[in-house]
Design a protein that fits this description.
Blueprint: E1 2-6, H1 16-23, H2 29-37, E2 41-43, E3 46-47, E4 60-64, E5 82-85, E6 89-94, H3 111-119, E7 143-149, H4 152-163, E8 168-176, E9 183-187, E10 190-193, E11 196-202, E12 205-208, E13 211-219, E14 223-230, H5 237-244, E15 269-277, E16 284-288, H6 293-301
Parallel strand pairs: 7-15
Antiparallel strand pairs: 1-4, 2-3, 2-4, 5-6, 6-7, 8-14, 8-15, 9-13, 10-11, 10-12, 13-14, 15-16
Helix pairs in contact: 1-2
Length: 312
């Protein structure tokens, strides 16, 4: 499985194993290092065997990853923050740093490994053995609420609600600089970035409709705390839209500025509210996960107060 990309200025001077593990979100740095050592990497058309190679802007990268193995995903006794559960659905508050489902280099420690241990075979099979029960996903370094389907009927119902844009999804994000308007709607289609197939871009290749509603909660001069409501659920939607309007997420290694405080550990984005119609009862249900400790700690370290009211 070949991965082609062109290095942007934001990553210049960084070790290639670090850059690739960042851009290939579901692939670990150790796995990429192994692929490099086995001759799976070319830089500007020449084989590169050193994982310590420091990339330059404009470098053309070709990484040949082995074809995915047929996996038997193992249940793992990993603590889960279960917000709600019944015979049809689970709502889980995913911690930052946890990958949702197994992929190359990340075969364990994922949310799927954890829910398999908890729920066993009481999960929908629609997405196969790699993603049992997974209806939607959030990025590894985004924290917050996810819904899990425990049978195929529930999965079909929740998937249809996603398709019809009737799921309630509200996020909290810290972005760079001062947003002037109190409320704004970003209605810009998102497609593949032709220069980097691992990124998305407004008006990129094969664009799809994407709408994000933004409400300012607090302004801090260098930063703005925002509440976001998604109408659509495109990959990296909030991250792409906020970067597009020149207010990238604080800590975003892919769409944000090159120089950021090292302690941030990833984008400051939390999926706070999730609402849907229950597949069996027809009742609308809504759940809320307050800001996690990493989020408020990072705000303090940035010199921002954490006394504010979150209103959607």
């Amino acid at each position: 499985m070949k991965q082609d990309l062109i290095i942007e200025k934001i990553h210049e001077g960084t070790r290639i194993d670090s850059v690739l593990s960042l851009l290939l979100e579901d692939t670990s740095r150790s796995y990429i290092s192994k692929v490099i050592e086995q001759g799976g990497l070319k830089v500007n058309g020449k084989e590169e065997l050193s994982k310590k190679y420091k990339v330059r802007e404009g470098d053309v990268i070709e990484l040949e990853l082995p074809e995915p193995e047929m996996l038997e995903v193992e249940p793992e006794d990993i603590p889960l923050d279960i917000v709600y559960e019944d015979d049809d659905v689970m709502v889980v508050n995913k911690p930052r740093g946890m990958v949702v489902h197994p992929a190359a280099g990340n075969y364990s420690g994922t949310l799927v490994n954890a829910i398999l241990y908890h729920a066993g075979d009481r999960l929908s099979s629609i997405n196969g053995v790699i993603r049992p029960g997974i209806v939607h996903r959030i990025d590894k370094d985004t924290s917050g609420l996810l819904m899990i389907a425990k049978n195929n009927k529930a999965h079909e119902s929740l998937s249809l609600q996603l398709k019809e844009h009737s799921i309630t999804r509200r996020y909290i994000a810290l972005v760079y600089d001062n947003i002037v308007n109190d409320d704004l709607v970003i209605d810009e289609p998102i497609g593949r970035d032709p220069r980097n197939r691992l990124k998305k871009k407004v008006n990129g290749e094969s664009p799809r409709n994407a709408v994000t509603h933004v409400k300012v909660l607090e302004r801090y001069g260098k930063y703005t705390l925002c509440a976001m409501r998604l109408e659509t659920g495109r990959t990296h939607q909030i991250r792409v839209h906020m970067s597009y309007i020149k207010h990238p997420l604080v800590g975003d290694p892919l769409y944000g500025p090159a120089r950021q405080p090292s302690f941030l550990g990833g984008q400051m984005l939390h999926a706070m509210i999730l609402g849907f119609v229950h597949p069996s009862t027809g009742e609308y249900m809504e759940f809320r996960a307050e800001l996690p400790e990493y989020f408020t700690d990072n705000m303090r370290r940035l010199g921002i107060g954490t006394s504010f009211e979150i209103k959607f």
